[in-house]
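One such given next:

>
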Amino acid sequence: MQPISPSAADYIKSAKAGIESVEYIDDLIREYLLFRGFKDTLKALEVDLQGDHDKGFNAEKIVDELLGMAIGLDADGLLEYWQYMSYRFFSHLSPKYHRTTRMFEKRLIRLFLVSAINADKREKIRQFMDKHGKALGQQGGDWIPWLGLEYVDEPSTRPEFEAHFSDDWLVSLRSALTDFIQTVFPAMAVPRIMLFDKDRREREALQNRLKICEEQLNGETKIKALELSCMSSSLVEDHIGGVAVAWSPNLKPATAELAADSIATIDQSLGVIQTNEPSSILKVSQEDVFLEHNSGINLAMFSATGALIASYDDESILKIWSPDLASTAPKLKNELDFTVNAMAWDKKHTHLLYLYDEDGYLHTLNTNTNLMSRQLLLERRHPWIQSMQASSASSTLLTVSSTKPEGTSDLSVLIWDANANKTIASKRLAPVAESHGVCAALNHNGNLAALAYNTGQVRLLDTRTLETVASISTKQKGLCSAVFSLDEDSLMVVTETGGLTQWSLRRDSQMTAESSLSMGVDGGVVSADSRLDYERVAFTPDRESIVIAPKDQCLVFNVDSAALTDTMRRHKDLVSCVDFVADRSLSASEDGTIRVARYRKV
C-alpha cells in the first residue's frame, strides 16, 4: 500500500493502537457491565466472544483459521469464511485493492487443491470442481491447468504446479496474508471508544499549546493594572525589556509628561499597554499551479490541516490530493453519479469530507478508505442548499436551505450530528423580505451562527436551540460573506462590491470600523462577473488579512488598513472559489486550474 498523508497516518496509527488493545477494551466493557448489574448482557457478550469470527482482530489467528480450513480440506468453510472477511473488512478498502483480495482468494483455493493431492484425496478435488470449476474456468488464464489437476500424475513435478508444493510457498502465503489483514483493520471506520488514546493525546497537546501561549502573552505583552499602579515608569520599562511605552493612538496624552496616577488610570481602562505598531502584512512567497481537472472547477477546499485539497468539477469528478509536491499522500479520484452543491471538511476528524447533493442527501467520504455513505437531509419545502458549515469543535454541520435557488427570504436551518447520523435541531426562520442571497458563519465552538442576508440583515442564532439571540441591521446591500473576529467580540462582513465593515456584538451592534477594498474596477462600476460571493472571499485565521477574487485573480488585503498587499497570478478564466488555511491560499478557476500560494508576514 502507498504511503499516506500525515493526518491519515495519525488516524490509522490511533485506530491500529485501538484494535491492538481490543482485549483490554473488552475487559473494560465487562467491568462496566458488572458495575451496572447487567448480568444478562454480560452473558450474551461472553457467548458472542466465544464465537467471534473476527478473532479479536488478531490477524495471525484469522490466518491460522483460513489455512487450517484449506489444509483440512474444508472447502465450504474456507469459502464461507473468506466471504465473511470480504464483506466485513475488505469491502472498506479502496477499489484498487480488490485485485489483492482476489489474489489471496486464488492462493487459498490452490492451497486446498494442493493439500488434497498431498492427502491423496483427489475425490475432494472432483467435488470442488463439480461445484466451482465452471466459475474458475470462466476466469481463464492460469486457472485452466488447475481444472485438470485431479488427473495429473505427480503434479509436484510439473512446472505449472511445482512452486505451490514447496514449504517456502506456504510460509510466504502465511506471511503475506497476515501482513495484508493487519493493514486492513486500521483502514476501517472504528468506533470512538477505540480511539480514546488518540483523543487523550490531542487534549494533552492542546493543553500544552494553550499553556505556552498563555505564558508568552503574560510574559511579553500584558501588564496588569494593579502592578502598574504600584510601579514607577522606569520599572515598567524594565518589565518590557527597556522599550519606551507607546500610547494607544486612541488615547494619546495631551502632553509628553504624565504623572504616575494618570498612567494607572489609563491602564485600568485598557487592561494592557498597547504599542502603536502596524499589523503585519502578507506577501506571496511561492505560487504553484495544478492541472488536476479537465473541466471547470465548481468547488475546492483545504482540509482542516491544509494537508489535502478536495476539488469538484463540471464533469462530477471529485479529487482528493495534496498541494505539496513532495508529499507521498495518495490521490483519490471519484466519478460521482450525483451533483454536489456544497462541500465541507470535518474539522475534528480531518479524514472525513461531507458532500451535499442536489437531491438533499449528505454523503460522508472517508478519505482513508475511499468509502462513502449517505443520509437524507432534504426538507421538501426547502430543497435548495445555500450554505454548509462544519463546526471546529465537534462533528456537527450547519446547513441553510431555501425554497427557491435564488430567493432566500424563506429559510430552513438544520444542525446535523455526523457522529450520530441524525438531526439534532432544525427550524424554519421568519422570512426576510426581498432577500436573494445568504451566507453563514460559525464561531469557534459552534454554539453561535451568523446568517448574513444580502439585504443587509444579520441574524445571530444559538445553534443548540436555533433561536435568534440578536440581529444587526447593517443598512448595507449585497452582503456576501461574514466571519467572527478572533476574540469573537465582533462580526466582520463583506459586500459584493468590496465593502468591509466590523460590528460589535457587545455594544448594541454598533459599527466599529468601515473600509473599502479596491477591486481595481474601471470607473468604479462593478460588473456582474466581478461581484463577490461567499465562495470568493476568505479571511486568514488571524483575521488580519483577507483574500478576494473579483474576477480572474486573487487579491490580498490588510484588514486594518484595507491596503492591497499582494496579488496572485491571473487564471485564464473566472475564479470560482478561494480558500485559506494556515499560511496558504487556493484559488480554483473555471479554466480547470487551481493555484496554491504560500505567504510570509512582513
